[in-house]
Amino acid sequence: MDPNIEDLKKDYLADKVVPFIGAGLSVPFKVPTWKSLIEEITKKYAVGDNEFLVHAVEIKLKSFDFWSAIDLIKDFAKLDDYDIQSEIVEIINREQIEIFDDSLHNYNDLKGMNFQVYLTTNYENLIYQYLRCRNIPILLKDIDFNTQNLFDEQRIFHLHGNISNPGTIVISRESYDELYKNEKYENLLKAVTSSKKLLFLGFSFDDQFVKQLISDHKHLFKGEHYIILDNPSDDKIRELKEVYGLKTIKYDSNKMPHNEAIRKILNYIKGVEYNQDEKKVCETKDKQSTIIGVQINDLERNLEENLFYQKLKIENIDDAFIGLSSAFYIAAEIYIRELQKNGFSFDVINAMLAKVLMKHKELYCEVYLEYGDSEKFVKAVHDSLKNINWGRYSEFFSKGEASNEDENRGFIHILADDKSKEVWWGGKRI
Asked: For the residues 196-225, what does the mean pLDDT come to?
């Protein structure tokens, strides 16, 4: 066994590890990488006299010089930081997808770990969505804590900003320098590294920010920290150890997908042997778990860019009714996610959604084809799903796990949000 993973296991069991989450963990959700974000922005603005930007930026990206690439875009496309920050938010919101099978990513694996503090350079909210911790994600500007109680509760720190506040996103050399000079940033890193060891997850370590972070704060990284990497060379392993004080735990994505390999490592360090061929079995009758419903903060999400929302909008359905449908969507989304966290197989969830889809098709024929009224059609579907009889599927649910009427009504909008599903509310198409 690799001595580095054994050391990591000892440190984890001794409560000495803090995960540092990078963009790689969000790839299954189609969240664009730094490279692809810059490429998309370049493509949009490399027009007319600026066509040369495509090649110029490409050269910078090949050497992982992301800051210089951003500088080129700012200089020749006449954009400022906020312009680029806004573009990033728009791209992420447009391209990020939902995943209902938690085996395809590692955020749900983190939920099962004994971590209190999470650091991330990611802009999206996937960590929070899956952890559902009491404290909302913390931005640098909002940090105000006593280092003595830093690890008393679960906390998520977005070091490079968050899409909920575009102006906080760190993207340029100037914004990084501003971050670096912030006393709160220094104090947070000092508080974490003084008593804990970092575990870098989802980094290729060609990430300019992270390399710079450690280089600029060498006095805080005197101890040994860890990084999980896919197929690093011996030279890379040696460099990470000697220059950055990082112990490398390697895996081979040619033998096992990234998410499964990382899951295997995480399970090992927490003392759970991982069987790649093991299949989840629903044994809900013996469980005492409770599915927690939607909370007030959840309902504040802006869903106007979601496909299900646009499908309602093009049929001129009343805004208030679209808002109600959005609330149902959020309730259903959270419910399905919690089912997965509680061990429900994807097959059971898929069977539930299939029944909802059939009800939509039935009412399309009975209501829309007869009356030609989209809003009446949606209301009919909601009413039908409100008290849907799950029949033989009900045996899988205990009282605390059964869906409520809001979640039931939201299932149809979950399906409508899926590009592959033909769930429409009339004759118009996007």
From this structure: 79
Amino acid at 166: P
Query: 29 or 399: which carries more pLDDT confidence?
Result: 29
Strand partners, 165: 162
Give the tokens for residue 430: 């996007």
Q: What is the largest CA-CA distance in the chain?
A: 73
Q: What one-character-per-residue DSSP string does 53-87 give?
A: HHHHHHHHHHTT-HHHHHHHHHHHHT--HHHHHHH
**Pick from 375, 346, 380, 387: nearest CA to 361:** 380
pLDDT tops 50 at residue 60: yes
The letter for the amino acid at 124 is E
User: Other CB atoms closer than 10 Å to residue 156's CB: what's the count?
Assistant: 19
Give me the amino acid identity at 91.
I
Joined together, the tokens standing for residue 1 give 């066994």
pLDDT, tens digit (0-9, with 9 covering 90-100), for 274-296: 444 444 433 333 444 556 778 88
The Cα–Cα gap between 18 and 186 comes to: 16
Torsion of CA 272, 277, 281, 286, to 10 degrees: -20
Tell me which residue has tokens 């290729």.
Answer: 204
User: Comparing C-alpha atoms, which of 352, 357, 297 is closest to residue 327?
Assistant: 297
Residue for token digits 């997965």? 340
**First-residue to last-residue Cα distance in the chain:** 54
Residues 169 and 89: their CA atoms lie apart, in Å, by: 9
Residue 199's DSSP bridge partners are 19, 226
pLDDT tens digits, 117-143: 899 989 998 998 888 766 667 776 677
C-alpha to C-alpha distance for 149 and 164, rounded to whole angstroms: 26
What is the predicted pLDDT for the residue at 320? 94
Whole-number Å distance between alpha carbons of 45 and 70? 12
Residue 171 — pLDDT band, cuts 50, 70, 90?
confident
Q: What are the Cα distances from residue 258, in Å, to 78, 113, 200?
A: 39, 18, 14
The predicted structure's pLDDT at residue 231: 92
Provide the pLDDT for residue 16.
92
